Amino acid sequence: MSYDVVVIGTGPGGYVAAIKAAQLGLKVAVIEKRKTYGGTCLNVGCIPSKALLHASEVYEEAGHSFDALGVEVSKPKLNLEKMLAHKDNTVKANVTGVEFLFKKNKITAFTGTGKVVAQGKVSVTSEDGKVEELTTKNIIIATGSDVAGIPGVEVAFDEKIIVSSTGALSFDKVPESMIVVGGGVIGLELGSVWSRLGTKVTVVEYLDKVLGAMDGDVSKHFQRMMEKQGLAFKLGAKVTGVEKAGKGAKVTYSPVKGGDAEVLEADVVLVATGRRPYTDGLGLQEAGVALDERGRVAINDHWQTNVAGIYAIGDVVKGPMLAHKAEDEGVAVAELIAGQAGHVNFDVIPSVVYTQPEVASVGKTEEELKAAGVEYKVGKFPFTANGRARAMQHTDGFVKILADKATDKVLGAHILGYNAGEMIHELTVLMEFGGSSEDLARTCHAHPTMSEAVRESAMATSGKPIHM
Ligand code: NAI
């Protein structure tokens, strides 16, 4: 059987590329080694974590916020088994959704390990060792990423006591204590889930701030909010050892600025120190496909590798490891293969941390603008001054917009607040169209909405807000 496109990997990058290519009239096959489609994101990443984030937020609200709204309920009782079942059902609905879309778009799906044999040739090895060879005009590598671990530190993940994000989605009882190594996105999302369910969480982070690349202002406020919620932080602390100890585990860390090593013990340890591109067993070396200095598949601006007809997208190539970045690359590469003009604007890729409150951002941070010597102005508006936020008791946080001092063009936007991940998109569209803060400030917004704070922030950038 011969195809126009064979996609290896069915995460958000791979499955979207396959669907788009099929929609454009190409004959498409996908290869997936998991039993279900959707990759890390749908099976053990974005989707299950969001199910737990939501459920644990509702549990927390029922225990703490209902009363003030005049809703009197008895103390909420956690049924962890049911909460985990909700997570599993959410995953199931999503992965079967992808299966349905493959069928609908007449995409042939193979279960097994895909390997690039040569230009135009891919093999699939199924679980029972049977090997099948496919011929194709184009290959898209979309194999994603895997847990990176801690460079130079042996971490024996058992996914019960010493866990990666995968194990942290499935504890069968609420741990009394948890150490999170890495104050990045995974550490704070999953740390806050278990903290809300009753775990004492301590985050140990190498940098002197959480959420490394986020705007410094946002990161500082966010950390304070997390501390109020009960998470403890050890910043500027380099973890040098993670080992089992007694019934739990211990983490050894040294202050980055120097000083004696310290040891923390807890029931469980979540190691969330980043992810690495996943190319194991893909046969890239034999096929002559080059990697870059960080082990990612090397590509040009059109996602082409050094071998003609072989493309790569998503976490396995350069750029932020985000599902939606992979999806956009999937669409673009399918369009390019079909002879159209596929493109991704890497300057306008939103990013969201799904804690409560959420942190959402798009474009440049203040630190980046300063470093680039760009003259900018800042407009900020707090949710405490927003009527809808007050009505919903979600007044934590603010909107911050950064615009070019001379032209008023919006260069970056950062929202810390309830549902920030939904609100960021009007700024994303604005930036995609090269809009100014005055454009946004003059756009009518429905009242009462939290999005009015976004508009007021734009008013603050280009002039004065009304409600402050
Ligand atoms: P991350 O890169 O966000 O954070 C890892 C943190 O670990 C960094 O702050 C780093 O300084 C720290 N670290 C590294 N070595 C250390 C050591 N020896 N001691 C102490 N701290 C150390 O990585 P994370 O959270 O594992 O996430 C992996 C990827 O998945 C990221 O690229 C992230 O963007 C993506 N992701 C995105 C989500 C979202 O968009 N909501 C959700 C979950 C993951």
Automatic annotation (TrEMBL):
It comes from Paenochrobactrum glaciei. It is an enzyme of class 1 (oxidoreductase). The active site is a redox-active disulfide bond. Its cofactor is FAD. Belongs to the class-I pyridine nucleotide-disulfide oxidoreductase family. The keyword NAD applies. Its EC number is 1.8.1.4. NCBIfam families: lipoamide_DH (TIGR01350). SUPFAM superfamilies: FAD/NAD(P)-binding domain, FAD/NAD-linked reductases, dimerisation (C-terminal) domain. Binds 1 FAD per subunit. Keywords: Disulfide bond, FAD, Flavoprotein, NAD, Oxidoreductase, Redox-active center. It comes from the Bacteria. This is Dihydrolipoyl dehydrogenase. It catalyses: N(6)-[(R)-dihydrolipoyl]-L-lysyl-[protein] + NAD(+) = N(6)-[(R)-lipoyl]-L-lysyl-[protein] + NADH + H(+). The gene is lpdA_1.
